[in-house]
Structures are given as structure tokens and as C-alpha cells.
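Good morning N.,

You mentioned wanting to compare the apo and holo forms, so I went ahead and generated the holo version with iron/sulfur cluster. This is what I fed in:
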Amino acid sequence: MMETEPTEDIDQPLRDRLKAHPGPALLWGAILCVLLLLEGPTYLDGLLGAIGAGLGLLPGAPGAEAFASASAYFGELPHLLSRELIPNRGYYDGSAWQGTFLGLEPKYAWLIRFLLVYAYVAVLLGWLWYGYVLFRRHYRAADWTPTDDVIDRLRSHYWGLFGLAVVVFFVTMAAFAPVIGPTTAEENIEGPYSYDMQYYNEDTETVETVTIGEANLGSASRGSGDSNVGVWSYDDFGRFHPVGTLVSGKDLFTFLAFGARLSLFIGLGSMAIAGFIATTLALVTAYYKGAADLIVVLTSDSVQAMPALLLVILATVVFQNHWISELYNGAMLFILLFALIRWPGLWRAIRGPALQVGEQEWVDAAKSYGQRPTVIMRKHMAPYILGYLLVYASLTLGGVIISVSALSFIGLGINAPTPEWGRAINIGQQYVASQSWHISLIPGLLITLVVTGFNALSDGIRDAIDPQSEGAEGGAAGAAAGGGGG
Amino acid sequence: MSESVVDTVSHQTGETLVDVQDLKTYYEDGGLLGSDPVKAVDGVNFEIARGETFGLVGESGCGKTTLGRTLIQLETATSGAVSFDGTDITELSGGDLKEWRRNAQMVFQDPESSLNDRMTVGEIIREPLDVHEQGTARERREKVRTLLDQVGLMPEHYYRYPHQFSGGQRQRIGIARALALEPEFVVLDEPVSALDVSVQAQILNLLEELQEEFGLTYLFIAHDLSVVRHICDRVGVMYLGNLMEVGPTEQLFQSPENPYTRALLSAIPEPDPTVQVDRITLPGSPPSPRDPPEGCPFATRCPVRIRPEDIDASDAVWDRIREFRDVIRERSRAEQSVGERLKERLGFDTALADSEEIVEEEFDDVTLPPDVQEHVEQAATYLSDGDPDAARAYLREVFGSQCDTETPQYYDVDDRQMSFCHRHAQEHVSPGDELRQRGYDTHDG
Ligand code: SF4
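and this is what came out, ligand included:
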């Protein structure tokens, strides 16, 4: 406890506390360095690529070239989680596998890479957690904060943890999509006829070269007869498909990984925008009340009164040839549309907590010494509604993922060949009762799992920030701490 | 007792710090546009001398908290002036207002709600200093530690969170925050009412020590009269947005003059159980601050309301008349509601059916003098015609007096003690005499 600490320590800034006790922090930094070294080129590639893409949107695209080439340069450097380091494609020359990692079967080579990705993410998360624990134990001036209780409650909320695990699984899949699949979207899905591959022809006993497109024709899953490549199997070209192939013979796992990227991008993007709008409006209406509140109520009611599905369909048609629907295959348009449609729901969900916190005397106290309204909203009100925002945003996010899939399912949404889960379900629906059931069913189950995961996480956060909602009192830290009397 | 004018009081304590002149604070309470505003503070005059503790008492809802909040500009005054050291602060805005805010701070009622739980104690106390950019970061931290010490907490509490403290300790944190900018004037809004009795005394003592040390001027809002008696130099008694009586604490407690003050004080349990004092129980509940009575705010409940001379009735009959007027009054207010109006339009005759019932209920066990009987019947006719407003106006006309029509003045009733009541005018019997005449026990001479 802090009672024993000498008074002089009270004023020590974080820097001094680090200096006084550098060990744990150094270890933590060292782990970070290792993690960065292992995967550094990927991060640089991604970062520079994003900057380049951003610049490319500006008129004249100043410097976009340079960033793109720098990004490409780093993209080629060796790193841990790469297809080049652990290749899973090769051919069987009758006696051994050629071109695969350590001459292993493609199945195992892929599995190793897959598991390595998750191991890396697990270490990364562990490192973050370790950092929090270190900070809490060694460097934080306060020996207890309200956040500690929230985190502790979340730690023992198994349903919430399950949700968190699903979300991490899904986010990792999306983030590492180019590495995690047995092949890449570019080669296998978007331009199969621009890439060649080699395989071992058993009849002629020679290694032959075909375009991937041609090979795909031979690996199609069409429900009947010989043409099916199911779950956990090889096709005739020695390619391994963890969850089978599509009707077109493309790899379903790769399709799903890139589809996850798209779903997550749309979900997170639209929730970030909608959440920002909802929070800003909730704070402003709770602070100023009266006319401001009335205007927002009317606006949100009119937005909610619009038939959302029709609006989205209309917008996809209207913007068909607009530049905005070119951005990321129309994902950008969806982000904006879903942000527009979903903010009123979020705002309504956090309006109550916002009004409640606006009534607190500490807000009056801040006004009484002349704190600026923007600071009052940010510092004295926002922290109390962000938790609720997270809860409802992750609930809504599941809804957005379903909506995008549903739209793609009916042929609106994201256009072929961009991978999207709803489209896979659509493609495979006529084969559900056949041996090619995997085409529809696996993406369907995945959507269910992901949406359930987000809901579970949202439950977990809700119970963690608001233990009364579960009927269990958090108990906080004893009020008797400290001996100031009074 | 002579008629006198306001603002002639001189304080032994020195010059005036806060001078409140005819202050009104009305607010729209989120109701439909055009509904009557809540008249929380409805024309209040008083002064607070530098260095004194001025108590403000009254039942909840009387406007004392709104008054306190207006004095530190948390609420905007509708009209009137609050001059602070000679500056009318109701006119200030922008940078001037922010600059002035250093001078006046507030300690809030509920220590659970007054501290932001997500900030450390240090951050909470330091925020006013940060807002006004006082000194360097290090100096501010230093100042916070000094403040912690001054309010009886420990320097190491800097990095604790409010959750880790008891109610009394939290209130000490609130006090430290209020004192951070070294204000001259502090509004204490029921600072101990949420605390355990055992802790109350400690906080009150702390407040008194701090006042002495820093020469603070307090406005102490409370409804616990014994606390007020303990800590305040002077007291103002509020009822329905008006200040009914002002005077030095002991004097006012010992010899209250205003009928409302007498009623309020008679509710304090007598420390000596052998002394039997009849409590003056007030009938009914305070009227809505949206629709206060026209003359004296206390007229609807006053035990010594002046009666018109041309009607001779017993106390019991007057009691019934008062109740009857209360009912009609409620009626006419309710009638303004949309639902009632709609019902009326649609021909649901709500009034007719029960107007006789009301009369019967009120008057069935007393014999009314003929003139009173006549007036009551006339009012009942208006009521059954579906016009409670007319009934209300009629009753006011025939049974009303100065109390219902004219706003009283402040009368000097004793040294530095002023009361807001017509009965202090020469032509009327004083409230005390009238009370005794009407059969109440009063414990003053
Ligand atoms: S003015 Fe009339 S109603 Fe008001 S307190 Fe005096 S006697 Fe009572």
C-alpha cells in the first residue's frame, strides 16, 4: 500500500519512476523489439502502402509513387510470417514434395504457417497484457483505478472472453489474410489466368505447368460426381484446400479470409463513423439539452423512419458509376451508408447514460470554475458513455456484417470477384444438400460465429462496466482506504 | 414597528460583499413551449457582509438552491442584480465571467455526485488551477498537496480515486477543490446533509476553521435548522422563491416574527421535553412555483392570514373556506391541462358532476353564515358551469384580503431583522398576537 511510500514520490513523473526501476520496462521493450524485428517489413509495407494509397487520392498524387515503391521494397524483405519463408505450394514428383516448407506435405506446411500466425498474435496480446500488468505493478502512481475493476470483471466473464477470443480469431484472419490462406486472392481469385503453377502429372510422370485458372477448372466443387473438393482435402493438382473449394474451383479458405477483411473493414469503418457521430451528438445534447436535443431527436427519428434496406439498394444503384463506389470495391460506399443508417440507433442507446452523466454535480462544479464546455464534455462526460458505446457498437457491428452479407447474397453489395461471405453462401446454396455442402455452410457458420462473438463481447463489456446490470455488486475497493479521517 | 424601506441594514461585520437586488430566476422546465416558467427565485433582496456566514433555510423546493446557484452564475438570472464587490455579475460574460469565477465557488450537496470518479483526487483538485493556468505544473501539484493538508487529508491521497474514500472524506475533497482558486465567497449547498451525523460536526468544524484562516464569506444553504443555528451569523428564510424573513441567527431563532418563520421554527423539536409547545402545522402543501399566489406567497397556507372585515365567520369556517379555495385552485390549474380541455370539448362534463360533492364534502359539518353560504354557492355555480377560473377569481374577490392582492414589504421588526408580511403594518394586529388570538401557542413574550 501507498502509506509506506515517502511523500516525495508523489510528484514523480512517469519518466522518473521508469528511471528508478527500469528492469521490467526494459524487458518489455526487448520483447517488443523482437516482435517488431520478426514482422517489421510487414508493418512498414502496410504503413507506407496506406500512406501511398492515401496520397494517391489527392490530385496529382504527390509522392504516391515513392511510397508505393518503398512499400513494395519492404514487402519483399524476408520476415517470419510469410509465404516465402513457409511455402505450402509445390508438387509431388513421385518420391518427395518439391518446393514446400522442409519438403513437408502442403497440408502441414500450411498448418504450420497458420498456427504461427496465431501464435504470433497470441504473443503480441500477451505482450500487451504483460505491459499493462507491469505498468500497474511498478510504474503507475495510483495503486487502484476504477478501470482495474472493469478489467478484473471482464477477466472472469467467460462468455465475454469467449466473444473476445472469437473476435481476435476473426480480426487476425482479416489482418493476415494474405499470409494465412493456402494461396492468395490475387492469384487464385482475382486473376487466375495471369499466374502459372506447376504440378506433377502422374500419367506422363512429368512436372507440367498450367495457369491457375485452368487448374481451378479441375478443382471445382459442383455437388455431383467426381467434381468436388471438400473439407481438408487435396485437388488433382496437389493443392491443399482446408475447407474445400468454390463452384469455380477457387480456394474457399482464401476466399473467406479476404471476405473477413472486407466485412471487418466495413463493420469497423461504419461503426467508427457512426460512433463518432453518436457520441458527439449525445454529449452536445446532454450538455445543452433543450433545442439541441429536440433537433437531434427529430433528425434521428427521420433517419430511422427511412426504410434502410431500400435506401441502401437505391444508393448502390445511384452510385453505381460514381468514383465513391470504386473505393475498395464499393466497401467505402457501404461504410458511409451504414454509418448514416446506424448512428441514430447508437445515439439513442447512449443518450440515456449521457443525460444521466450531464446531471452529475461534478459537471456543475467544472462549470463553476469556468472549464470550457468542450473539455467538460470530453473529460467529465465522455468517459462515462464510451463503455456503453462499445457495447452497442459491437452489437450493431454484427448486424452490419449480416446486412452486407445479405446484400451480397441477393446480388447487390460487393461485386465479384471480390471475396464476400454472403456471395459464397449465395453461390453454394443450391449444393447445400450435396457433397459440396461446405460452400454455403462454412461461411454461414462463420457469420453466425462472428456475430455471436461480437454479441458475447458486448455482453462482457456491459457487465464489466455496469456490474449492477447483472445484479451482482462489484464491491469496488474498500471505502475505508486511507486514513484522512472525516 | 414602523414601515421602512429595504437596504437600510448596517452590518457590524463590515462592508457588503454580495448585494442581491430584486433577483428573479425563472426557468422553463422542458415543458411544452409557452407553459409557465418555474419561478424558482421570485424577487429576492438581501446582502451578505464580507466574512460572515449567511444561512438560507426553507423547505425543499423553495428556491434556495437555485438562488445559491444564481449567485455563482451557474444559473442565469431572469432579472435583478447581484453585485459582488460592486460589480453586477449577472452582466458578466466570456472572459470577464471566467475571470470572476475564481472569486466564487461552490461545495455541493452530494459527495457521491460531486466528484468525477474517473479522475484521481489530485486531478480533481488541480482542475480549477489548470483552467485558470496558475503557476507551473509542479507548483500546481504542490498547491494541491497543501490543500489536501488543509482539509485534513494526506498528501499521498493525490493518486487515489474518489471510490476509495468515505462520504466525509469525499466532501473534504470537494471543499479542497472549491478552495483551490482561493475564492472570497463560497456557496455551501447543504454540505453535510448527505453525511452521517457523526461526520457532520467534523465537516462543519473544518468549514469554520477554513473560514477563519482564509477570511471566507459563506452562503450556507440548509434545511437542517440546528446546523444553521450552529454555524450561521445571519439567516434568511425562504418560501416559494421569496425571502420571508432575514435576521441575526440567534435573534431570529428566539423571536421569529414572520408567520412562516414561526411555523418553520415550531417544527424543531424542543430540547426540553417538559416544555409543551404546540406545533403550528401548516395546512396543505406549497403551491406550484409555476403559479404562485398573487399577493403574499404564503397566503394559501398562512395561519394568520388577514381576513376581510366584512365577513364574520368562525376560525373553523375560515379553515373550510381555505380548503375549499385550495381545491378550486387545484381545479383551475388542472383545467389548463390539455386532456381536461379535450374532455370538455368532447362534452364530458367533469365539473358539473362533482361540484356539489366538493361543496358538501367541505362544508357539511359546519354551519355557514348566510353571506358565506351565498358566496360558496355562487362559486359552485361557476364550477358547475365548467369555469373553475371564474370560481377561483370570485372566491379571491369575496374572501381575499390584502394578503391575496398585495405583495408585502419588508418591515424592520427588530435590530437588523426584517420580515415580509403585511401584519407588521400599523393597522394590523402583529403575527404573534394574531397567532395567540387564533389559539396557537407561541413561545415568545
Ligand atoms: S402577508 Fe398575510 S399571508 Fe403573508 S405572511 Fe403576512 S399575514 Fe400571512
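The mean pLDDT of chain B is 86.

Happy to go through it together on a call whenever suits you.

Best,
F.
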